[in-house]
Write a structure and sequence with these properties.
By secondary structure, the protein is α/β, with parallel strands linked by helices. 41% of the residues lie in helices and 18% in strands.
Length: 499
């Protein structure tokens, strides 16, 4: 149990004492010579004692603490307290607040005796810099300039089959563009088939344009990518398409084009980044946009439990007053369709398990968004920590993986296993891939198709198990020749993309 000793209790002390008293069940004691402060702390159930923290006798009988925080307001008193504390507890870790009137001699003493010094001047300067430089004010100014320079209409393109984070980010960027007089459309390729995603779009009445691969983009003077960063990778844009704006939170897997690029890998969602921009542009949050952005953040951070950052909580606090909570509840609890339930049942029935890893093929699927729901359901089973569920649609096979194992990075695992025969990516605990099986198009009858499907199922299952078992940097050699042949015998144009 960690013992934390607070010596002196000025302004900065009040800001952290409550948190310290609740942290990890450790022991806390505050010593200050201000009787009113002691009484107030005790009323808040914080252990406190009235005594002079600079006096050796005050701390002579105290058990050695793990951490000492010198937290008075006056520099001279804090220096004396620090000298006393270091003399009495030479092995303790000491954090000392310098106060606002430090001389050079004071600074030298704090530097010598404290393990960490809190200098209010430096802290204030750092906070000012944080609020007035990248990635806040400067990037907002750059984005405004880039949007204002576009002469024509802007296409804000999500990745294929967009999730809530991508949809919300696109809608928010359209709002921002229109605030500077630029016409824009939120565009996507593929389908929005997941029940919650459809509910989000329909209930919030979000204006989205569904693009086809052959739809001309000539009407757009510029293109922005949100929640992905490269044209032709996880979207159906030409790979050489000029990109004006890229806003994403995923680590790039190659060079990122764009006149304006903001890759915020520390953010848990692209919606977090767009929330900051809406705020920086001084725009009012429309309830539909605010609700979509908050839902996007919640989904991508798994309700603030996965890859979450302080910026995600800040964004949520900005959005919450403008969110339509009744619609949010409806989005989060849509009814499951019969086909989705059948896919989940098929995954449970067909699962193959090795240790804590379960893999299941569900055969032919009409709704690819049933796959991640099936993967989630398998993960809820006892003894299962990592899942992969895949299914076939036309000449494509779609894969969805989930994990709660601390030593598994699913994004890297799927890339190791399938990048050479398709495209894959995602987060450490949730990822996906898709592979084109062009050879199915040349199969003569159903029996031949089923035979090919059976072989593909074996290839995918073994590749995934091997990638898990040989992480990191798996190079799957046993099945490379067979699988590469299967996934390159294509009956037409290559339109594979990542998930």
């Amino acid at each position: 149990m960690v013992f934390r000793l607070v010596l002196g209790c000025g302004t900065i002390c009040w800001q952290i004492t409550e948190e310290l008293s609740e942290r990890d069940g450790g022991r806390l004691l505050v010593i200050t010579d201000d009787e009113s402060v002691v009484e107030t702390l005790r009323d808040e159930s914080v252990p406190a004692r009235r005594a002079d923290p600079t006096d050796h006798a005050t701390i002579a009988t105290i058990d050695p603490p793990d951490v000492i925080f010198v937290a008075g307001d006056r520099t001279d008193v804090n220096r004396a307290t620090l000298e006393t504390a270091r003399d009495r507890f030479p092995d303790a870790s000491i954090v000392a607040y310098m106060g606002g009137n430090a001389t050079q001699a004071d600074r030298d003493a704090f530097e010598e005796l404290a393990d960490h010094t809190v200098d209010p001047t430096d802290a204030m300067a750092g906070r000012v810099l944080e609020q007035t430089t990248r990635p806040a004010a400067e990037t907002a100014i750059e984005l405004r300039e880039r949007l204002s320079a576009i002469d024509g209409r802007l296409a804000v393109v999500t990745h294929d089959n967009p999730d809530p984070d991508a949809i919300a980010s696109a809608v928010a960027l359209v709002d921002i563009a229109e605030s500077v007089g630029l016409s824009a459309d939120a565009c996507y390729f593929g389908d929005i088939s997941h029940q919650e995603n459809r509910a989000m779009v329909n209930l919030l009445d979000l204006d989205l344009r569904n693009m086809g691969r052959d739809d001309p983009l000539d009407e757009y003077a510029a293109v922005a990518l949100v929640d992905h960063s490269r044209p032709g990778v996880n979207d159906q844009l030409p790979e050489d398409r000029h990109v004006d704006i890229v806003i994403d939170h995923h680590p790039p897997r190659g060079p990122v084009p764009g006149e304006f690029v903001d890759l915020r890998q520390q953010a848990g969602a692209t919606s977090t980044v767009l929330t900051e921009y809406v705020d920086r542009f001084g725009l009012a949050f429309h309830p539909a946009t605010a609700t979509a952005l908050l839902y996007g953040i919640r989904v991508d951070t798994n309700d603030f439990t996965r890859e979450v950052s302080p910026a995600d909580f800040e964004a949520a606090s900005l959005l919450w007053p403008h969110v339509d909570t009744s619609i949010l509840r409806q989005i989060e609890h849509p009814s499951l369709e019969g086909e989705t339930l059948e896919t989940i049942a098929q995954a449970i029935k067909n699962r193959m398990q090795r240790g804590s890893v379960a893999v299941a093929s569900v055969g032919r699927v009409g709704d690819r968004d049933a796959l991640p729901q099936a993967a989630d359901q398998l993960l809820a089973m006892e003894g299962v920590e990592t899942t992969l569920v895949f299914g076939f649609n036309d000449e494509m096979v779609y894969l969805s993986a989930r994990s709660r194992a601390a030593d598994v990075d699913l994004g890297e695992t799927l890339r190791d296993a399938f990048d050479r025969i398709g495209s894959a990516g995602g987060h450490a605990d949730m990822a996906g891939a898709q592979l084109e099986i062009g050879i199915l198009g040349s199969a003569d009858d159903e029996e031949e198709v089923e035979s090919i499907v059976s072989v593909v199922e074996e290839v995918i299952t073994n590749r995934f198990f091997e990638a898990i078992e040989t992480r990191p940097g798996a190079q799957i050699g046993s099945y490379t020749q067979t699988s590469e042949w299967l996934f390159t015998q294509r009956g037409g144009e290559d339109d594979s993309e990542s998930v």
